[in-house]
Amino acid sequence: MKKVLLAGVATAALTGAAFAESHSEEVKIGVILGYTGPIESLTPQMADSAELAMKEVNDSGKFLDGKMLASVRADSTCIDSAAATAAAERLVTTDGVVAIMGADCSGVTGAVLSNVAVPNGVPMVSPSATSPALSTAEDNGLFFRTSPSDARQGDVLAAILADKDISEVAVTYTNNDYGKGLADAFASSFGGTITLSAPHEDGKADYAAEIGALASAGGEVLVVLGYADQGGKGMIQGALDSGAFDTFVMGDGMFADSLTADLGADMEGSFGTVPWSEGEGTEAFTKLAADAGVNGESSFTRESYDAAALIALAMMAGGEATSEAVAANMLDVANAPGEKILPGQLGRALEILAEGGDVDYVGATNVELIGPGEAAGTYREYEIKDGDYSTVTFR
Fold first, then answer.
1. Is it the case that residue 37 has pLDDT exceeding 50?
2. Tens of pLDDT along 270-283?
3. Domains 9-148+278-375 and 150-274+379-394 share a fold
4. Which of 16, 25, 86, 148 has the fewest CB atoms inside 10 Å of its own CB, making it the most exposed?
5. Which numeric CATH code is attached to 9-148+278-375?
6. Cα–Cα distance between 364 and 138 in angstroms, integer?
7. Nearest to 51 by CA among 305, 293, 301, 361
8. How many whole angstroms separate alpha carbon 7 and alpha carbon 140?
């Protein structure tokens, strides 16, 4: 592992995050997620999971001579870039966070990255921003993500449809960076016919016009690349009410307990994908979360735990609770070589790093950061059976 000596500490101390940390035993990490908005049913569990990793670090008493991590939550709204930018500014300038766990949705993540993180030198680790455009964003080495890019999810969705011999589909996507990016990735991979690919706006009371256009175009199924608590759900409800479609193919933004609770009985046989993992690390996280009273079975909870854990381990590897240490050591602690670290073993990882050793953080999602610091990732293919999600396989 490359050990980074932060020679620029004097300069770094001039930044808000580093200055605040250097004068306190409390190290603040921003947790910016859409606590309101189209994925508000998912984000409390995501935040709880990130804070579970922070608590594990704190309980070990082995983080940087007894320093304690503190979570500071802020609302990204998922869809309002101006609000997300303002919230992130407060995290950095007022609260003095060293790093940001988040944001969640791709559009607001890009806004926070360009308007706040890069100008202030504060690293971000998103558990759920999946737009392919973020892979090439100008980030000065400050942006990482523990969920895979939608460039891969588009391939996976297309492969599932091919396996099911479905060759003609209609597509609706939420009209933002996430929806457009995933729709484009799917279109480039799908070998069949897309009768119509049309955006929908979130927050509308009625989607009859959008459903009418898609129904006229036809298709064996409707591919819904939206949000479970907003327009995506509205499009499915409209299709069910009108009888336009009865089978839906869903991207990761549609995976939520709230969707099956409200519509699951009418969606029998519908299917989709969501970033997910299996194996020893996933099982360890599931038990850890259950023991702590955290719902770890929701979307992006594993990725959120891993994001917070990586932030802490990167600081430990750099020997400083600073933004610079997080950015410089993230790839080193996430990848081989080193002792493999699972959920529940963060105290052990801190010991190894304190002794000058190497760790390979496997975490809850079999973490491997590639390219510009994003996850290779695996996807859970699921089908709705008896009104609930049933795993088909992992891809």
1. yes
2. 999 999 999 999 99
3. yes
4. 25
5. 3.40.50.2300
6. 28
7. 305
8. 18
Sheet (strand 99-102) strand order: 68-75, 26-33, 99-102, 124-126, 143-145, 374-375, 369-370
- Name 131's bridge partners: none
CATH number of 150-274+379-394: 3.40.50.2300
d(CA 113, CA 224): 27
What is the rounded distance in angstroms from the CA atom of residue 170 to the CA atom of residue 237? 16
The pTM assigned to this predicted structure is 0.89
Q: Using CA atoms of 183, 187, 190, 192 in order, give the dihedral in degrees to the nearest 10.
A: 120
Among the listed residues 283, 268, 300, 221, the one whose alpha carbon sits nearest the alpha carbon of residue 41: 300
Residue 186's pLDDT is what?
98
Indicate the residue type of 156. Answer: V
pLDDT at 285 over 70: yes
Residues 30 and 91 sit within 8 Å (Cβ to Cβ): yes
Give Dmax (Cα) for the chain.
Answer: 66
Burial of 146 (0-12, 13-18, 19+ CB in 10 A): buried
Assigned token pair, 362: 């496997």
Sequence-distant (≥ 6) Cβ neighbours of residue 152 within 8 angstroms? 185, 377, 379
Tokens of 376: 């290779």
Cα 188 to its chain centre, rounded Å, is 23
Of 2, 130, 50, whose CA–CA distance to 364 is shortest? 50
Domain boundaries, the chain: 9-148+278-375, 150-274+379-394
pLDDT digits 0-9 by tens, 130-147? 999 999 999 999 999 999
| Bridge partners for 340 per DSSP | 360
Cα torsion at 141, 48, 306, 350 (round to 10°)?
100
